[in-house]
Design goal:
- With 381 residues, the chain is of the alpha+beta class.
- The chain has 3 domains: 115 residues, Butyryl-Coa Dehydrogenase, subunit A, domain 1, CATH 1.10.540; 107 residues, Butyryl-CoA Dehydrogenase, subunit A, domain 2 (Beta Barrel), CATH 2.40.110; 144 residues, Butyryl-CoA Dehydrogenase, subunit A, domain 3.
- The protein is built from 11 helices and 10 strands.
- The two termini are 35 Å apart.
- The protein binds flavin-adenine dinucleotide.
Length: 381
């Protein structure tokens, strides 16, 4: 189905992203998998190409695109190479940077945003704790007042860019009595005394993205590190999570679509019983089914992207986009593995890695159960 949300400016931008991917990403994917991380050169090169500052105003080194469709184009093109790329990039540029851009003080913007846009300051976001991620309001990392300072103690886990990041927007309890109304966001630099991180976590998929635990032991910060308002952190996160979920949805569909297209090619070439396997009715009907599912998901996500670019996307529609796209992606990729036969289970085949990479998308950014909980509540249930 012809897509209608992108115009020639978006397509020209897509071409420049493709050029970056061909030159700076594709030749290095195996190195990234082995290193279990994206090297700093990736970030610096992306910064040079203007791919880290779409949401950052020009005065701080960004390009201030002002139209989420450009972010979506970038996410789509990175997803075609592998699911970890839009994840790491998205956490940095589309998920964490907006907290500083939209909630930061002038001093914070000047201190951090030029480095964020250039790739010299890599961002991560610390919400999830070892004790739980779904129930964000129950987080236990604390900040206690000490004169003009705050003393932070606690830990975060599963943090994307956690091993190599430089600055973490971190959700911390500043009032133990007030539940969700006692949470504040702090910008915590990795050089801060008392900050440390664990090893790169050993994941089932998404090897290229580094994921780590963060530890805070008497980390001393001041009000100058508060992002947004004191005790408003939970509200700030709720306001920003729809964009995070939409970004996930864009990647989910683009990633699955790419692997499906490669699988269709495979089904045309691979022979069994003297014929291409795609010509057997079962497989032909299956591929027809999968293409339809992807296009239906893509049409819904495109509408969400358009709404978001017009600032009308609701949190509930973002939740629907997130759970549905990750479910479709997982189903499609499971069938793609099956169509590859034994090769589909070999790590050297992209389809195998894509299938493993996709699994987490039903868990993170708010699990699919939490997404359905939000949608159900909106139904008055
Ligand atoms: C690779 C990876 C990268 C990540 N990156 C980040 C990051 O950068 N920053 C960050 O802060 N977090 C990150 N996360 C954490 C992720 O967001 C959490 O894992 C997720 O929110 C779920 O939290 P949890 O793991 O504590 O599971 P839990 O909250 O313990 O949930 C366990 C199960 O119970 C279900 N459940 C919980 N509550 C309900 C309910 N009310 N109704 C029905 N079912 C329920 C959940 O859906 C899940 O199936 C990442 C996770 C992974 C695996």
């Amino acid at each position: 189905m012809k897509r209608e949300i992108y115009d020639e400016d978006h397509e020209a931008f897509r071409a420049s992203v493709k050029e970056f991917v061909d030159r700076s990403v594709l030749p290095h994917t195996e190195e990234h998998i082995k290193a279990k991380a994206l090297p700093r050169e990736f970030w610096l090169e992306a910064g040079k190409q203007g791919l880290l500052g779409l949401c950052i105003p020009e005065e701080y080194g960004g390009s201030d695109a002002g139209d989420y469709r450009f972010n979506a184009v970038l996410q789509e093109e990175l997803s075609k190479v592998g699911a970890a790329y839009p994840t790491c990039h998205g956490i940095h540029a589309d998920i964490t940077a907006p907290y500083i851009v939209e909630l930061g003080t002038e001093e914070q913007k000047q201190r951090w945003l030029p480095g964020v846009a250039s790739g010299e300051i890599l961002l991560g976001i610390g919400m999830t704790e070892p004790g739980g991620g779904s129930d964000l309001a129950a987080l236990k990392t604390t900040a206690v007042r000490d004169g003009d300072s705050w003393i932070i103690n606690g830990s975060k886990t599963f943090i994307t860019n956690g091993y190599s990041g430089d600055l973490f927007v971190t959700a911390v309890r500043t009032d133990p009595e007030k539940g969700p109304k006692g949470i504040t966001l702090f910008g915590i630099e990795a050089t801060q005394e008392g900050f440390s991180r664990g090893r790169k976590l050993d994941k089932v998929g998404m090897e290229e993205s580094d994921t780590a635990e963060l530890f805070f032991e008497n980390v001393r910060v001041t009000d100058a590190e508060i992002i947004g308002e004191l005790n408003m952190g939970f509200i700030h996160m709720m306001e920003k999570l729809p964009q995070e979920r939409l970004g996930c949805a864009v990647s989910n569909v683009a990633h699955a679509k790419q692997i499906l297209l490669e699988t269709i090619d495979y089904a045309k070439e691979r022979q069994a019983f003297g014929a291409p396997i795609g010509t057997f009715q079962h497989n032909k009907f299956l591929l027809a089914d999968l293409v339809t599912r992807i296009e239906a998901a893509e049409a819904y996500i495109d509408k969400c992207v358009l709404n978001h670019s017009q600032k009308t996307l609701t949190a509930i529609d973002a939740a629907k986009a997130k759970w549905f796209s990750s479910q479709v992606q997982s189903e499609v990729l499971d069938h793609c593995v099956q169509l590859h036969g034994g090769y589909g289970f070999m790590n050297e085949y992209r389809v195998a890695r894509a299938w493993r990479d996709a699994r987490v998308t039903k868990i993170w950014a708010g699990s699919n159960e939490i997404m359905k909980e939000l949608i159900g509540r909106d139904l008055g249930l």
